[in-house]
Amino acid sequence: MKPLNRKRKWALRLVMMIALVVLALPLSKKLDTTPKELAAQRAELSKRDRTTEPSSVDSASLLADVRTLADPAMQGRAVNTPGGKKARDYLLQRFREVGLEPVGTGFEHAFSFTPGRGIRFWRAKFWEERKPVPGVNLVGQIRGTVDPDSVIVVSAHYDHLGLRRGKLYPGADDNASGVAAMLAVARHFRANPPRHTLVFAAFDAEEGGLWGASAFVDNPPVPLQSILLDVNFDMVSRNADGEIFASGLYANPHLRLVLDKVRVTSVPTILYGHDKPGFFRVDEDWTMQSDHGAFHQRDIPFLYFGVADHDDYHSPGDTFENIEPKFFLSVADALIDVMAALDAADAAQLRRKP
Questions:
Q1: For residues 115 and 132, what is the distance between their CA atoms, to the nearest angstrom?
Q2: I need a labelling partner for 81 at 20 to 30 A (CA). Which of 88, 105, 169, 255 fits?
Q3: Neighbour-count burial of 102, counting CB atoms closer than 10 A to its CB (0-12 exposed, 13-18 middle, 19+ buried)
Q4: Which ranges constitute the DSSP H helices of 99-197?
Q5: CA 187, CA 58: separation in Å to the nearest integer?
Q6: Is the peptide bond before 322 cis (omega within 30 degrees of 0)?
Q7: Greater confidence, 266 or 9?
Q8: Is 36 part of a structural domain of the chain?
Q9: The CATH number of the domain where 167 resides is what?
């Protein structure tokens, strides 16, 4: 048989690539959360009876936590910076004020990581050896009263982008809001002791690699097999439509029954989605977009709560003045209800089925 010449080989490869794209496109669309699916969820939830119970959240503390963490004095809370340390010192104080107990050797859990180079190989320093960067996670707990050996992790990263090219990135929504909501949950369960042990983890170095969460699961302060699931908060204070996504049910469908009970009465609209794999729209799949991804890689169930990206995402405009206090307060209440429903379930209900 006569061998193909080089041009014909490349033409054949091109045809095969086009064929693969054509075949994969319908599957990609099928796996993405489509506008039609979201419209159906919105229509169903529009008929719900929203709760009229008064908020259980200390709104003054909730907003003060965001205001303080997003203050210019924190310099954007980049990992291994004076601003990051200042934010950590503030959170250590808040952990103690809330009444959390240290986990293992204390609240502070140090780690280090070596950042990747990305694809910007044209930079002058690309070939220089990268040095390890230190980070510090903050971890506290409330011991369970019924099943203390079963753990639910509540997580939120406290770092942000810092100062870049002379511009400050305050990170109010991303992710001072998630940390403030985590503290609100902790305050609630300090007053209403949980059945399971709740571990509250403020992760460092989420931006650029989920390094803090990865360090947590690589060297867990509690036995990894005791962790039932991770519930992660990242960007929960801004949405003009009053919507927040609960992501993770595609990988953990057994948790849907718990969430369904909460979202039929919650004030914010809790939508399901952004957790299905897609070939061409990987940005629509949030499974590895925040700290819960490190737990998912260890086959630990997760739920991720966050709003859709807004115009100030990863920009200097992500300031305290641009969060939406009324919406944020309603989300904090809903997250407490979610955590209460999860804690009320038995450990067997929360574990991922083999």
A1: 7
A2: 105
A3: middle
A4: 178-191
A5: 9
A6: no
A7: 266
A8: yes
A9: 3.40.630.10
Is residue 260, in this structure, part of any structural domain at all? yes
Question: Range with the lowest mean pLDDT among 12-26, 66-80, 119-133?
Answer: 12-26
Cα gap 108→138, rounded to integer Å: 5
Looking at residue 151, the DSSP 8-state letter turns out to be E
Structurally, the chain folds into a number of domains equal to: 1
Q: At what angle do helices 59-69 and 178-191 cross, to 10 degrees?
A: 140
Phi, psi of 113 (to 5 degrees): -150, 160
Q: Are 228 and 350 in contact (CB under 8 A)?
A: yes
Instruction: Name the pTM for this structure.
Output: 0.89
Helix (H) or strand (E) holding 337: helix 325-344
d(CA 102, CA 290) in angstroms, rounded, equals 24
Q: Return d(Cα 338, Cα 259) in angstroms, integer.
A: 7
Taking Cα atoms as reference points, which of 291, 287, 161, 285 lies closest to residue 214? 291
CA Rg, the chain, in Å? 22
124 domain residue, yes or no: no
SS3 content of the chain, % helix, strand, coil (to 5): 40, 20, 40
Q: Kindly report the length of the chain.
A: 354
Q: What are the φ/ψ torsions at residue 252 (nearest 5 degrees)?
A: -130, 65
* Per-residue pLDDT at 354: 66
3-state secondary structure 286-310: CCCCCCHHHHHCCCCCEEEEECCCC
144: Cα separation from own chain's centroid = 23
Helix axes 256-263, 325-344, angle to 10 degrees: 140
Residue 268 token pair = 């914010």
Give domain status of residue 123, yes or no: no
Distance, in Å, from the CA atom of 119 to the CA atom of 271, rounded to the nearest integer, reads 35
Instruction: Read off the DSSP letter of residue 330.
Output: H
β pairing state of 243-247 and 269-272: parallel
Query: Of 6 and 258, which is predicted with more confidence?
Result: 258
**Dist. CA 221–CA 227, nearest whole Å:** 11
Neighbouring C-beta atoms of residue 134, cutoff 10 Å: 12
Give me the domain span that covers residue 244: 32-113+132-350
Closest CA to 229 of 259, 267, 199, 185: 199
pLDDT classification of 127: cutoffs 50, 70, 90? low
